[in-house]
Amino acid sequence: MHIKQVVVEGFKTYREQTVVEFEPHLNCIVGANGSGKSNLFHAIRFVLSDIFSNLRADERQKLLHEGAGHAVMSAYAEIVFDNSDNRLPVDREEVRLRRSIGLKKDEYYLDKKHITKAEVINLLESAGFSRTNPYYCVKQGEIMKMATMQDEERLDLLKEIGGTSVYEEKRRESLKIMDDTKSRRDQIQETVDFIESRLAELDEEKDELQAYMDHDRARRSLEYAIHEKELSETRAKLDDAEEKRRLHVDKARDEDERAHALHDELKQTERECKDRERAVAVAKEELLTADIELRVAVEKKTAADLDVQELGEQLAAGDEALKLVQGDQAQLDQQVAETRTKIDAVKPKVDAETRREEAAAAEIAEVNRRLQVLHQKQGRASQFATKQERDKWLKAQVKDCEGTLARKADEIDILKKDVDKLRKRIDTDKKDAASIKAKLAEEEAALQASDGEYQTKIAARNKAQDERKELQRRDAELDSEVASKTDEVKRRDKQLEFTMPRELFRGLSAVQRIAKDHSIKGVHGPLIELMECDERFFAAVEASVTNQLFHVVVDNDDVASKIIEYLNKEKAGRVTFLPLNRLQNRPREYPDSQDVFPMLSKIRFDDKLRPAFDKLFGNVLICRNLDVAVKYAGSTNLDCVTMEGDCVSNRGAISGGYQDSGRSRLINMKMLQQTQRLRAELRKESAEVKDKLQTAEQAVTGVLGDIQRMESARRHRLTAVDRLRAEGKDVATACALAEESLGVKEKTIATIQITVGDLEAQAADLAAEIDTPLDAKLTSDESKELKELNPRLDKLKEERLAAAAARLAAEAELGELRAVLESNLERRQHRIEETTTEVDMSGLMTALARAEAEAAAAAAVEAEASARHTEIAAKVAAATSGVRESQGKLDQLLNEKDDNKAGLEADEREMEDLMSKRATLQAKREGLQRKIRELGSLPSDAFEKYRGKALKSLHSLLSKTNEQLSKLSHVNKKALDQYQQFTEQREALEIRRSELMKGHEKIKELMSYLDQKKDEAIERTFKQVSLNFREVFSKLVPGGKGELVMQRKKPTAGGAENTPPTGGKEPHAAQGFAEKYSGVKIKVSFGAGETMQMKQLSGGQKTVVAVGLIFSIQRCDPMPFYLFDEIDAALDPQYRTAVAAMVRAQADGGTQFITTTFRPELVKVAGCIQGVQHSHKVSNVREVSLEEALHFVGDAGIGSGAGAAKPAAKPAATPKTGGAKRQHESEEDDEEDDDEEEEEARDDDDEEEEEEEEEEEEEEEE
User: Choosing a second label site near 699 at 20 to 30 A (CA), which of 464, 850, 979, 1188?
Assistant: First the structure.
């Protein structure tokens, strides 16, 4: 074991935290005077408590750092020990011991845990730190003190080292006890003398007292008989009253139990009533919902029935219309066909007559043209003067004809193009009509196919909606039940809260919240939540552990510390924790009996929590009854408890009585856990139902989406069908118009072509006339032609008129037929087609089927809603009836409670009367018993002598006896008692005096034993120190010799007690070892010189002897480490070298040394050198090299920092503080030398006397 590290902060000159490392062997500290070397030693001794043990506030203030800057309010010093050898009884290889102080505190810490000062002292003493040998630390000046110590002081030092203070303390205590014993013996003697004198006086008064006592015995016998008779009567009355009271108590107990039962039943009934009222409210809400659903279902069913009825009427009307139309359609079709046949037959006739008329008209035009040409030719001569004029005009006319022909040709081309377009358009319209007809047939087929799929989707929708409604109802029921269970959990939790202290409840609630909010793992919960047992043992378990049921089980103490820290921060109550890492199963032996069994065996819990349950329940037995519990509690050292909850502690205490089951923690916890389980199951089922409901909602949404898409598709198809039908009609109309326009244009083309022929003929005639002679007469051929043309014209006109008449007749017939066809037959046919189109029988039938399906579904929903409405209405009626029943029962229980309360009050009044009477009788009985007791001891015949006498005669005898006693009233009535009492006191005092004498002898024996042990300790210590001194001195002074000599006390003239014997040794009983000697002398020789005593040595030689003595003392009681503060200050170089070698040798042997020095010898052999600097009133430490240290001890400074000491060659740079300190020490050394000279001068005066004693002392050397 050794010091590894010293940490100081705020202590004296060490303001900042300073860490000093040490090696396990020899460590040397160097630094200027006043730099803080000794303060570092003080810090170590401060922690080890051998100085600065009991500090006042002002003394603590002095230990705190005082300097510039902020004031230091607290300081600490810490030692880090290497405990690899386990010298300190701590199971760690490194131990930290800290002491911290402030203005109002002084605390110790071991490995950062707070401990007391007594524990620190015990810990250090167990490691070998002896308080009787404080020389593990040699302070400055300690060497000089040892060197100048007197012989008597050295003897006292050996006594202190040998531990005689313990024996001295016990001896002082024994002397004090002996003084007290002597005082008590003197008091006893005085008391015995007084008793002897008093007994002599009482002996003379005994005769008169004897007569008095005879009459007094008679009186007391009579009074006893009287009191006994009255007492018997009083006891009889009291027994009667007690019996009545017992009956009333039993009755009151029954009524009280009935009251408790009524209270519990009343609470239960109130809960049932509230539950039923809640059920009624829920049922009414369900009824309201069912009523709304029924109303909606009825409305939907009514609307669906109306739709079915309307569609049925429309279908019937359409059927009738179709039937009416279908009857005329065949006849109309026949008429249309016949009319069209007639029109087809008339059309060729009209065409032929038209062609004949047109041919006649063409010929007439040709004849007229020829006649016009011939007439114009006849009139040319009168029209034109010359041939040239005529030719010019003819040419102009030809040119005009040609221009007209060109225009007519263009018109014909345009009309032909129009005709081609019309023909193409007619072909296109016919194709479009065919395509539209095909599409219409396709859409109508798809519409019929979608109707079947639509019905399937409607059925799926109805089914999905039914499932959703059922799930919604179940979800509402579960929500209501969960809300009810939640209210019940809150009520149970509140009841459980009432069974424990408020702070505990707040703490438990906070623990759950803190563990959840801060994610603290390892919290198992309160014991009451972690255990299960039969309900029969609830009373026993609660009575045995009470509030310990709410102790919280955690994995380890770190978890508990964290939660407690949060509890303190939030001020959230108090909780007791059971960390499993700190608990262990204790082996126990339980009695093998049928009357008892361990409580732990009746509790079910997780096996990993066994240490916690073993801690609380492992020491408890459940017993059959209270007698068995008392028996086993005394014999097994275990706590016992009965099934009813009566407890017997192993220390003898018994507790028990009535327990209110309504406040049972375990019952409330069981009910709470059951309710929580039910709520959890309901929540689980509710979650499943909600998932199913969500799935059902998605299914309904999907089906409704499909239905909407199908309805949209159907509407689209219906629109498409209507559009196609409209397009078909439009195409047919356009085709008819195009055909009509085609006929008109073809006729126009034919007319224009006839005009073109006329114009071509006219142009040819005019061209032929050009260049012909201008003659007024026609040629013969022309004349002949002119004559023939007029009759021909007349004939052609007649033919034309006949053809026109025939044409008009044919056209009239054709127009009449067309008029009949178009205005009557085709219109009627079109009307029938429109009627057939408008009356969409398939659509109506599809819509009717759909409406009927909707009506059936609505009827099913209405029937289901009606049944549910009826069911819920019955449920509401039943719940309302249950509420009325509960209210009736509640009223009945309240009446019973009032009656029970009135009965209890009446019983209480009767009980009060009985208790008053009982108290009176008890007072009388106690008075009689007190009187009987006051009679004192009675004669032996007092109990039977007056048994048969009446009370009146006893009173008469008592009065006579009292008269006789009045005559002897002057007698000392207490003479005999006093005589007996004094006799007994005398005997007791004699016994006590003998006991004190024996105690006195025992104490003397103890004192003799203590003196012997003390002498042995002193003798043993002297021999060991003397032996060590010879060895150490021979090593320090080569060739030298040193020894310790005991100096006997001088004989006195007062007696022979102090005179030393001439031969042999004085026994311990006569005189002890310590009392035989007056001091310890030191005799040394340096080399071959003579043997000298301390007063004959120089200052350096005295220092060597003192150092050797300190080493000798240290070897008597070895320590793990030593602190030397400048022990070589006054030594010569050769002795410093010897001291350094000895220190190094011991350090190599496993002992740690920490020294301060200004000399190079110790520095050179040190393994670790620390340098101390001081600047601005603040010290700091750093490890320095051997060269730096040697440079300093050679009068040089350490380092080059601010405040560091400079070499001796530059005295101006030497710190003022160090120089002043050194000068002060030099002055102190001079003063000490002066004192030594004065002391030597005084010693010289006594030399002659001491030399005379030397021969005698040499004979007594040991």
Answer: 850
